[in-house]
């Protein structure tokens, strides 16, 4: 659920999570949000990225983070579709057996 919400917000260009950002950029530094911190699930400006709070964290450029989340969502969606198909087949087989 969290990955889906992050992907939705990133694709809409919305800021995420840390409270240090707004639509136009970082509130603290008035810099553009350029990277995504995987550990905190937040968009960061270059200055925040170098702060102690995020320095050791894994960060990705925003377009790469969006691509990564889309791939994860697509893979999970395919798994759900496959599971649904199996359940429908099982249901149909059970209905035939009961007839």
TrEMBL record:
The keyword Zinc-finger applies. PROSITE patterns: ZF_BBOX. InterPro entries: TRIM/RBCC, Znf_B-box. The keyword Zinc applies. Keywords: Metal-binding, Zinc, Zinc-finger. GO terms for molecular function: zinc ion binding. It holds the Pfam family zf-B_box. This is TRI27 protein. Residues 21-62 form the B box-type domain. It comes from the Eukaryota.
